[in-house]
Design a protein that fits this description.
The protein is an all-beta fold. It has a 6-stranded antiparallel beta sheet, with no helix packed on it. The model has no long low-confidence stretch (mean pLDDT about 95).
Length: about 260
């Protein structure tokens, strides 16, 4: 977490002078330096008597975002596709500051518009393991997750963006996990995967259930083994944890972290 030197965000800045509106930043790239400090080229001047509004999107892009000019100043992302590999994924965050007086530091508080999804595996605390040598996940699949969507902001709740992802299409091709020994302590199978917010059961916009398949093997202390295969397990039927509440989750929402164990 946190920004690192070289990170960039896109900023829109609106100056209001007695009803005369000027756009002083228009998708301007702002660069992170260090210790909460950002900088940019082509410096702009404060105007005494004006008020300011600032909107930010992370990361910076020349083409990914558009900003409405109807006075609402809402962000739209016509098309965004989440990469399959979490190391290549990029968080999308949005921020706004209104009624800023001149000559003040502008603090931008960002909120996520993707969902953070995590799947862990562990041996149940209720399982009698006195005769078990080991339990290994031989194969684990996580599939039918929509990869592409359109985001349209519809408003602000204080400084938090409200909006929706629609026109979902395509499916992520997430790598299977295999030969992972599990213990009483949870082991991460999928950690910090950034997903398009979406419904997890089949609907018109999502014709397939988001599912998992699991094959695991028990090795007993006497040398015998037993293999268990579970396919087509609906993720919406499994308890997930979000905001410390554990219950079945039917939909991933923006700015939420979901943990499944």
């Amino acid at each position: 977490g946190g920004f690192v030197a070289g990170d960039t965000m896109a900023v829109w800045g609106i100056q209001d002078t007695d009803g005369e509106v000027d756009i002083i930043f228009n998708n301007h790239d702002i660069r992170y330096v260090s210790d909460g400090t950002w900088t940019y080229d082509n410096k702009k001047l404060w105007n005494i008597g004006s008020s300011y509004m600032f909107y930010g999107m992370f990361p910076y892009s020349k083409t990914l975002y558009s900003m409405s000019n109807d006075g609402k100043w809402y962000i739209t992302i016509p098309t965004f596709t989440t990469p399959d590999d979490p190391d290549k994924q990029t968080d999308l965050m949005i921020s706004e500051r209104r009624d800023v007086d001149p000559f003040n530091t502008v603090d931008m508080y960002f909120h996520h518009i993707l969902s953070n999804v995590n799947i862990y595996a562990k041996i149940s605390d209720d399982l009698d393991t006195t005769g078990i040598e080991s339990i290994t996940i031989k194969d684990f699949k996580f599939y039918n997750i929509r990869s592409t969507g359109h985001y349209a902001q519809t408003g602000w709740d204080h400084n938090r963006a409200e909006g929706a992802w629609t026109d979902l299409s395509g499916y992520m091709d997430i790598a299977d996990k295999s030969d992972i020994q599990i213990y009483k302590k949870a082991t991460a199978l999928y950690h910090d995967y950034l997903m398009i917010p979406q419904i997890l059961f089949s609907t018109e916009s999502q014709p397939k259930d988001v599912n998992i398949d699991a094959t695991f093997k028990i090795v007993y202390k006497d040398g015998t083994t037993s293999t268990y295969i579970k396919k087509g397990i609906r993720l919406s039927g499994i308890n997930g944890t979000s905001n410390s509440n554990s219950k079945p989750i039917s939909e991933w929402k923006p700015n939420y972290r979901y943990n499944y164990t």
